[in-house]
Design a protein that fits this description.
Helix content: 55-70%
Order of helices and strands: HEEHH
Largest sheet: 2 strands, antiparallel
Structural class: mainly alpha
Amino acid sequence: MDFAVYSLSIIGSFAAARWATENLKFHLRNKRFWVHHWILAAGLMLAMLAVKVEAAWLWGALTGVALEGLRRDNWSLVRAKK
């Protein structure tokens, strides 16, 4: 059953992240760096791994957020010069 929870969490968080990135204007950036939501999700996953968090729904949710961010054209940490 953990796999079902994990899978549903991926789908739900992917959809929620997609909606949020299209409708909310919240950014962590400056002139040089842009910390995208997939980077934040990956950082949280590393922290969860370090402290041995095993909640399937949380892993699925962060995986969905990361996957939504990686599918976009502009996903790098360093901002491109214009």
